[in-house]
Amino acid sequence: MSPDDRALVDRFLDMMAAEAGASKHTLTAYRNDxxxxxxxxxxxxxxxxxxVSKLGSSWADLAxxxxxxxxxxxxxxxxFLVDEGLRRDDPSSALPRPRFERPLPRILDEDEVRRMFExxxxxxxxGEGAAVRNLALLELLYGSGLRASELVGLPRAxxxxxxxxxxxxxxxAKDRLVPISSRAETAVQRWLEQVPSGAPWLFPSGKAHLSRxxxxxxxxxxAADAGIPPERVSPHVLRHAFATHLLSGxxxxxxxxxxxxxxxIATTQIYTHVDSARLVELVNARHPLxxxxx
Length: 294
What we know:
Layout: H1 3-19, H2 24-41, H3 49-53, H4 55-58, H5 64-83, H6 110-124, H7 129-144, H8 148-152, E1 165-169, E2 175-179, H9 182-192, E3 204-205, E4 208-209, H10 212-225, H11 235-248, H12 253-260, H13 265-268, H14 276-286
Antiparallel strand pairs: 1-2, 3-4
């Protein structure tokens, strides 16, 4: 990438951080996508629609979801250049628009989750530090539906005795209130007894907090201990289980959107696949016309 193009990308990312509240992970993804596009386009300032159309062939071997993400990054970038007067035209109409189905999330059924808790509780009963910590992690993942990054980054004082909510900083540096069950509160308070008094994090590790990679390993170990194939389980799968089981139990989709921290309810709607029979039954039982006789 030329120095001029790099300067344009830096200005764009500064805008994304300041005005759109984009997270560090989002900014890194945008930079990577733009740098790879520059390898084909040459100059962002002078690339024509014909040049942009060539990206389709260079991305032919990529997954549709990857193509869609890169196209979205470039559309936003070229739109920024036009808005800032750095280009007169927007060539992004020539970008490929792949159609793909959003994959259904992997989920665990309620019995499998119960088995994970029973196994984790049995191990935590020994009082061993790692086992007590792991039970607290499991309670917060499944009980509050936290993202992995949100969970490992919780400050020490995030969970306070008697407070049914905790404040979480999610994607785009947006804060939201998340309910915490009495079970989770009890597990966390028990874990806090073993956290060093000077640690700023709820789940410290070395000089920082527990990493997402380590959390992933812990969750897979908890699954294996419960007799569940570990490759089926991850922190995100437990977040999906939280959403799926809440919806199955009658939770409102808008409430679920708020709990999960989704900016767009279309993202939340993917969970409606889980119990279509129950949703049909709900319509038949609760709709005003359900009780109207012919």
